[in-house]
Structures
1.
Amino acid sequence: MSQQLNHISKLMSLVLRHQPEKIGLQLDAHGWTPVQALIDKLLAKGIAVNEALIQTIVATNDKQRFALNDDKTMIRASQGHSIDVALNLPESMPPNILYHGTTGRFLNSIRSNGLQKQNRQHVHLSATVETAVAVGSRHGKPVVLHIQAKAMFDEGYKFYLSDNKVWLTDFVPIAYITQ
Ligand code: HQG
């Protein structure tokens, strides 16, 4: 992805997940906004975008962070929000084990409090160790925690699989975490 597309993609993550007001954008209750509104607001900030470019970003984004509706008129981030949106994802049965990538300085707190969603809407879990290592590396030297996801599910904890295949849940108690 070119540097310019990467820059616009990062800005889209910011406004579609965290701060729509930064460019005067409004999201609906489910996180969707018209593609045209996104284009207009970015243009107003002097950022050259059009529909084709937005569609390229959606299609080529490394983690498929964005989703378009069927007729490609609406866009939202598939997960990762800090603002309160109802993604209305279906509940899914997780595999036996999921992984959480984090880093050493958080471990004491995680061991006392469990995995909490912090600023986001959910705790994010990965299907593979490799992805968890990448997630943890964003914070420092990665540490991968093993989550007994199916056991949690059997006890009634809810799991959701986002459109871009990130596993989401509300909280992971310490009893289900091993390193
Ligand atoms: C940690 C990226 C102390 C948690 C990734 C994590 C992901 C605690 C940090 C997505 C804690 C929150 C989300 C506790 C959890 N005490 N620390 N009790 N419970 N933590 O960035 O999971 O590239 O909000 O371990 O790929 O790192 O943005 O969450 O280290 O899918 O699309 O608190 O963001 O995706 O950090 O990453 P984050 P995350 P994108």
2.
Amino acid sequence: MRTQWYKNAVVYQVYPFSFMDSNNDGWGDIEGIISKLDYIKELGVTAIWFSPLYQSPDYDYGYDISDYKAIDVKFGTMEDFDRLLEECHKRDLKVIMDMVINHTSIEHPWFRKALESPDSPYRDYYIIRKGRREGDQLLPPSNWESSFTGSAWERIGNTDEYYLHLFCPEQADLNWDNPKVRDEIVDILNFWLDKGVDGFRFDVFNMFSKVYPIKDDHSKKSFQKGAPYYVDGPHIHEYLNELYNRSLSLYDTYTVGESFHPSDEDAYAYVKEENHELDTIFNFAHLDADNIAGKKFFWKPFDLKQFKKGLFGPQKTYYRDGWNTLVLENHDNIRSVSRFSIDTGKYRYEAATMLATVTFMGFGIPFIYMGEEIGMTACKFRSIDEMKDPVSHFVYDLLCKYHIPKQLAFRFIRYGARDHARVPMQWNGSVNGGFNRGHEPWQCMNPDYKEINAEKDLNSKKSVYRFYQKLLKIKKTNETAIYGETEEYAHDHRQVIAYTRIYQGKTLLVMGNFSRYKASFRMPDGYEYAEVLLNNYDSLKFSEGKAELKPYQAVVLQK
Ligand code: TEU
């Protein structure tokens, strides 16, 4: 049944809120997406991952689902979705749905019914516990923290009970230990697979299984309080395997799990083919190379060695018996050209194409986030009020609570905010960047849309999009680029990232200069006369076995 079509796939992520607003109401929609499918196809991708399109009250912009089998009205109808699916398949584009099943919206009927009566069978769909009494004070059942700041427990009205939410208070965690919950999930997956979708991206899947009974986390090393009790939990491998057997393996699917700081050992187990859990997971470790301890609002100078370690680690580990993914951006991260200490002013094109080359030529499936292919930059937000993501506000409020001056707090938020990726797509230089016909978009535009937009990029001699086309063509068709084993070079080099991919006697050498200064790199033997497959400059200079790379130059050689 399963053809493993994903092995030479290239995935494009659409964040529906901000892609294309066809009816000019300020929200992106399905009709808008359909109108841009040719643009996506022409780029050279083979699949699209849609961030949630389901019914949602949008406390976390679609990641809080209130009906898993309905399309949200702001995006369109189920008929519109069916047409989207058909139009994608007509163009040979696979469709990957986002599945947010660690938690549901508190507006989901299951949660509503759970709260209606203490005897409701739906209570056991969630994680509801009595608080702890200390004197006259009622405290949460444990000291676990939410990923979005504060306690992970929310008190239920005036009762002495709390429910668990590892994200927003409006996102209640499901109790995966209840077999009925797993039945419901299987039913939802099969509903979409029966419609013909081709795979899923599982949101924070490695938080599904919790350690019971609930207890305090006293460890000093936890990424956040409670993490050892809800990350890579005791039954997670079993539950994934169950989804595989009861649903995924019955169709020609592909899955990618979004993991939350997994241990190396568990990460490998999730993707190991013989385990029948997931096909791939996302690895984000390299994206922490310019923040402190994985906390994205806290700046540190870019550490290229850390980036390399994060990027190459999974390529090495999963090579023999698993598969990998390659990511620079998504809806949770700031634009890649605007980070890693990059000089965007002068070298936006060079940096955008270098980043894509050194990342996507590795072992794994490239995931491209809408707008990345035209080198969209971080948004020049002027105040916290322009930001819609609840996380930006939670963290801002927290910083202010600790007496950080407001301006400084805002600067922290602006450094790492997810809002940067969520401003509307910039299609052209007309009103609202062509996202719609002038209605105020739900999230403000990046004021640079007149300078940076798809139309302008495509007409430019230095087009990021056209470079991506060349790169993706190699990535999809060159067997070495698909199957080759990665070997890293220049690990200690402070400017250059370099590696080979080797497969059946053929070799690719990929090298990129990660800085605004010239850099020289001693290549492994025999590349001076190799064929240049890709170069983001017109020429490449060699001297005595060394490649002399210009600022942000990236090259792929084949031998
Ligand atoms: O994200 C999980 C997650 O933990 C982070 O990427 C998170 O966005 C970051 O730590 C905040 O700074 C997934 C989704 O991708 C995200 O959009 C959702 O908000 C989250 O799950 C909850 O569903």
3.
Amino acid sequence: MNKKIIYNTSEVVTCSGFKPKFGKEMNDIGIIENGAVVIEGEKIKAVGKETEIFDKYNKDEYVLIDAGGKTVMPGFIDSHTHFVFGGYREEEFSWRLRGDDYMDILRRGGGIISTVKSTKEASLEELIESGKKRLDSMLEFGVTTVEGKSGYGLDLDTEIKQLKAMEEINKNHPIDVAVTFLGPHAVPQDYKGREDEFIDFQIEKVLPEVVKNNLAEFADIFCEEGVFNIEQSRRFLREAKKMGLKLKLHADEIVQLGGAELAAELEAVSADHLLQVSDQGIKDMADKGVISTLLPGTAFCLKEEYANGRKMIDEGCAVALATDLNPGSSFTNSIPLIIALAALYMNLSPEEILTALTLNSAAALDRVEETGSIDPGKKADILILDYPSYKFLPYYVGVNIVKTVIKDGKIVQKN
Ligand code: NIG
Ligand code: FE
């Protein structure tokens, strides 16, 4: 059996926990100075002080991994991305730099609709190929679990093609993929003014096919002014829940519609974006244990005010952070960028940021019992950094300091 001990660390930051951390708890990151981690098979067997670990476990029976006096921590979890898509929108990015508005571009048939066209044209193989390459890049940043959404099909065949691409990638890439069905991501041109009928189509034709073929774990919707309203979102998500999917929501991103309140009402796993969330929405998320997933890359690229993560944590929410990697509003998979924005512009502490990118992101994917921290019994998804303190993560601005990535107990990446 695969048996390893990671030793000679400056610290093991465990982020220990089997439930999400709310409010102040986000600062508890469980540091063990000069810690060591025992791995057996794909799982973590033990974690503790190095001296105690070596008293208890016989060195000779283990492959020893020398951390070089540096920090060891859980793998990052990117819990909100749209990493499978055809084509790019570099032209649109230049228009936005010139002052064009993201939603205006969508209304003109660009934006998401333009990626829908390219994704329809791409073959399944092309989507798998480009999706895998994007995950290769994420692995370099230390991401060991990622969420991916459909939503660039809008029709039955293309949605299924996107979901199948993720299923295939999940089988053949070290990173675990949690799959979300985002059928109602935009209103197709031929459904303009008939949004209710499009929701009917998603509920009657697409959802059952997704569920029957076991192609997604979560359902999501773009609940936004000019896209799908609260009533349409509620109807779609309720049906999805009845059919056995867990729920997520693109909520209160551009206009305050009450998406966070809806997420709480439906006991969604997470509400995401939340740039415009109301005070009531914050309270409801905290009360119902809905994870508040914040995506500062999107606010940065759209030059919007950042979501008020500080307030959410102070009011007792469990905050997660993610990249929102997609070809439009946030074309980045850079974890260092997300850390920098969260630290410098959202006033989150280094400890809160770590929790948000590990344990709470695992919770946003309903996987908090299997990954997201260095705890016995969990998957051995572990990073060795190039510096002796986790505080270098925000301090070394925008730079990737991940040196070694261990996924399911195996070294899968060395930078
Ligand atoms: O999370 N807001 C809606 N959906 C994506 C953007 C998708 C795109 O622009 O292609 C988001 O930001
Ligand atoms: Fe998104």
4.
Amino acid sequence: MDYVIPPAPIPAVPVIGGKDSFPVRRIYCVGRNYAAHAREMGSDPDREPPFFFCKPADAVVPVAPGNTTETAYPSQTANYHHEVELVVAIGRGGRDIGIESANGHVYGYAVGFDMTRRDLQFALRDKGRPWELGKAFDQSAPISPIVPAARIGHPAAGRIWLTVNGVLKQEGDLADLIWSVPETIAHLSKYFELCPGDLIFTGTPEGVGPVVRGDLVAGAVEGIGEISIRIT
Ligand code: MN
């Protein structure tokens, strides 16, 4: 079939240990998933059900290991925030996935930044409006290469951290996720049929804050990877 205009390229993320890439279908994000971050956002961290929002697939910015990738300070914000997150890459789809079988749907893991126009997000939130302008803009999802679960298994613990210009800003542990990866997959798949190519940003630990042009933002999850971006 031919198209009336050129089709957009398929967004893709490199995979560690091979030459092939992971094609991105959708990006789901968990709203808040570490108790201390829920508190700093002004909400009760008790286990109310997780909530989700989306970013467009082409918001991904693949960042090669050991490189610093430049990303643009976005328009229409004066409070641009970093959030470092464990990212889950779905390799096998399904709906109403059980917690016990959820890991079998995971292709691999990565480190990502859920970059956020915090001023817009809060203004929209306070008016009960959708979050897209605050969360779903271009280049809002820098991501490391994906490491296959076949190589590392399914980590339930491990340090996650972020620095700005070498200064530690965010630090937590995957063991502190309010909703574990299997629980998150189980919840999300009640609402959406998950498909191969879906990414899930699993939430950020406490310590989110602003970045400005020129800042070097580095993040990592122990055993999974690290990324570094320069805000330009
Ligand atoms: Mn987030």
